[in-house]
Amino acid sequence: MEQDRRNGFSRRGLLRGGLLAVAASGAAVVGFAGTASAAAVNLGLDNQGAKRVQRWVLTMYGYTGAIDGALGPNSWKAMQRFLATWPSQPTPYKGAIDGVVGPATIVSLQAYLKKFRGYTGALDGRAGAGTQAAFWRFAYSNPAV
Question: InterPro entries under this entry (predicted)?
């Protein structure tokens, strides 16, 4: 297991925590997915929780990728379709369906989580602890895979 002695984080620990994007080169990048096509942004979910989200968007919003527990661009494209089109969505997503987990995607997700999953924070476009906890509740409200 590789460890960065400057900050004490290990790649395995960050993967377990979920807020990690792994670039195609294998370098760990903490934060939101950018343009790297192999990036995964689980927003605090473990592998099982991410699989539950993938299974849900597979049946409802056209996800066509593997049920692998890594929320990559295809998973987030399906989530963006959900956030843009679900009739009861309080703040519909209006951006491009591009799979990039940016502030607009997070704000729309936060609005959904606020209305239905107990999120109490601001709609600020940052996936902090409150957003991650509510996203966890969302994931685990879906059937196991």
Answer: PGBD-like_sf, PGBDSf, TAT_signal
Predicted TM-score of the model (pTM): 0.73
Residue that is written with structure tokens 């969302």 in the block: 138
| pLDDT attached to residue 59 | 80
Buried b / exposed e over 39-77, threshold 16 CB at 10 Å, is bbbbbbbbeebbbbbbbbbbeebebebeeebbbbbbbbb
Q: Where are the alpha helices (DSSP H) in 9-128?
A: 11-17, 47-60, 73-85, 103-116
Which contacts qualify for 120-126: CB closer than 8 Å, 24 or more apart?
123/91
Domain residue spans in the chain?
47-140
Helix (H) or strand (E) holding 22: strand 21-22
